[in-house]
Write a structure and sequence with these properties.
Elements (H helix, E strand, L loop, with lengths): L11 H20 L19 H8 L2 H19 L3 H23 L2 H10 L6 H8 L4 E3 L2 E3 L6 H19 L2 H12 L3 H17 L13 H17 L3 H9 L1 H21 L9 H26 L7 H26 L6 H23 L24
Helix pairs in contact: 1-3, 1-13, 1-14, 1-15, 3-10, 4-7, 5-14, 8-11, 9-13, 11-13, 12-13, 14-15
InterPro entries: Acyl_transf_3_dom (IPR002656), Glucan_succinyl_AcylTrfase (IPR050623)
GO molecular function: acyltransferase activity
Pfam family, one: Acyl_transf_3
Length: 387
């Protein structure tokens, strides 16, 4: 029986899953420029149909990242000297980039939104030095802004909860219960039932607020996903169940997405309220079905190393920190050119990826910048021994 501080072998399949999830996130956020949903920069080529491919990943992309983060936290805890040491290490790795991101990386995003959508007349330097750190709303935007870095903040909060649970809960019994409950059909039935309650009953058609003090729906979704990933890392029976149920789970995910497409295509822009629970239940089925299927495929087919994997896994966090700012700023410059929508989309994707890669390659070589962008400090050189 694996205890929460026993060593966990590296799972290359989940590394690839994490890299793929963040790659999808970049394309998804570029898509936000074109769909009717609110975003910091909006193209004149927005189209309602663009929502449909976005909904193929909308249900599961963030929950999957929290599951993978929980799994990685189990491995990191196993290498730490104590739970307190683990929390200190994770706090440095998460809170330092979060503070740097809020202060330096994020500010261009609300500036672009204020200029293009709220009539703000000041330049960026004026905004950053006089208005950004006001700790009050401006044009309906609370400043300073967390924006996409809410994920990092929530990940740190859930890490604190995890450490408390590790210190308070008798883990061997909890792990055995987890293996029993989720090692069979309960892997699909119980989480889907929980998610149906969230999306179809408690918060029908609800959205995350990204305010940790007023975001009950997000906490109901993401904290259990994070803890599931943590327990999964020590559970061979549940990993085997993910492999065993991967095809039925994939079928459920496709069925849930099919129902969502049917509702989106068959209703007026304002759907009747009686459809909310149906839509929410389909969202729940798609969400957990996709997660189980992807975990099963990662274990069965993708759990192998590659020479490219270390670089990609290291680059994921810096890419995440900077990608949204790059795409918003590029969109601000690009949209007035009046290019065709397809060209605009492809240029945004290419510019965002290239900008992220440059940010990572430059930042990783500067010792003082590495901790600020989520990279480990460079190891101290060993002193030379005199002959």
């Amino acid at each position: 029986m694996t205890t929460p501080r026993a060593p966990i072998p590296r799972h290359y399949g989940l590394d690839w899953l994490r890299v793929a999830a963040f790659a999808i996130l970049i394309v998804y956020h570029v898509g936000m420029v074109f769909v009717p949903w609110g975003f910091h920069a909006k193209s004149a080529h927005g189209a309602a149909w663009a929502v449909l491919p976005m909904l193929a990943v909308n249900a599961w992309r963030l929950s999957l990242l929290f599951v993978v983060s929980g799994y990685a936290s189990r491995a990191l805890l196993g290498r730490a000297a104590s739970p307190g040491r683990f929390l200190r290490q994770r706090s440095l790795r998460l809170l330092v980039p979060l503070a740097f991101g809020i202060a330096v990386i994020v500010p261009p995003q609300p500036w672009v939104e204020l200029v293009t959508q709220h009539g703000y007349a000041g330049g960026f330097l004026t905004f950053w030095t006089h208005d950004y750190f006001r700790f009050a709303p401006l044009g309906g935007i609370v400043l300073p802004a967390v924006n996409h870095l809410w994920f990092v903040l929530y990940l740190w909060l859930y890490t604190v909860v995890l450490v408390l649970l590790v210190m308070l809960v008798r883990w061997r019994g909890a792990q055995r219960a987890f293996d029993t409950i989720f090692g069979g059909p309960g892997l699909l039935v119980l989480p889907i039932a929980w998610l149906v309650c969230i999306h179809g009953w408690w918060f029908p058609m609800g959205y995350e607020t990204q305010n940790p003090f007023d975001d009950a729906m997000a906490h109901c979704l993401y904290l259990p996903a994070f803890l599931f990933g943590f327990a999964l890392a020590g559970s061979a029976p549940v990993i085997a169940a993910c492999v065993r149920w991967r095809w039925p789970a994939a079928a459920l995910a496709l069925a849930g997405y099919g129902v969502i497409l049917a509702i989106e295509l068959g209703q007026s822009p304002i759907a009747p309220r009686w459809l909310y629970p149906v839509y929410g239940a389909a969202h729940a089925v798609q969400q957990w079905g996709a997660i189980v299927a992807l975990l099963g495929f990662a274990e069965r087919h993708w759990n192998r190393d590659s020479g490219l994997r270390p670089t990609l896994t290291e680059a994921v966090f810096p890419f995440y920190l900077v990608h949204q700012t790059i795409l918003v700023v590029v969109a601000y410059w690009l949209i007035p050119a009046g290019l065709p929508g397809g060209v605009e989309f492809l240029l945004l994707v290419a510019a965002t990826i290239l900008g992220c890669f440059a940010f990572y390659r430059i930042g990783r070589r500067i010792a003082w910048l590495r901790p600020l962008i989520g990279l480990r400090p460079l190891p101290h050189p060993k002193p030379e021994v005199a002959p």
